[in-house]
């Protein structure tokens, strides 16, 4: 059995933890470059009638949805 599975982690979470450990072990200049590569900004757009809608940040959309649900 894989150790990450025995620890209760998903494979993606295991990879994220391992990548963060490697980035933190680097010297400052390579570490800063690696941290920039590690940042992600997911975007999406809804398509209606074959036309693309507004492209939005997934993080911002999730925050807006959480606020809207909290107000209900």
From TrEMBL:
GO terms for cellular component: mitochondrial inner membrane; proton-transporting ATP synthase complex. One of its GO terms (biological process) is proton motive force-driven mitochondrial ATP synthesis. It comes from the Eukaryota. GO terms for molecular function: proton-transporting ATP synthase activity, rotational mechanism. Coiled coil: none annotated. Pfam families: ATP-synt_Eps. Belongs to the eukaryotic ATPase epsilon family. This is Mitochondrial ATP synthase epsilon chain-domain-containing protein. It comes from Aspergillus pseudotamarii.
């Amino acid at each position: 059995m894989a150790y990450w599975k025995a620890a209760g982690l998903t494979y993606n979470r295991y990879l994220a933890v391992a990548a963060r450990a490697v980035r933190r072990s680097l010297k400052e200049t390579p570490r800063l470059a690696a941290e920039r590569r590690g940042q992600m900004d997911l975007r999406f757009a809804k398509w209606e009638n074959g036309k693309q809608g507004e492209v939005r940040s997934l993080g911002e959309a999730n925050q807006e949805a959480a606020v809207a649900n909290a107000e209900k």
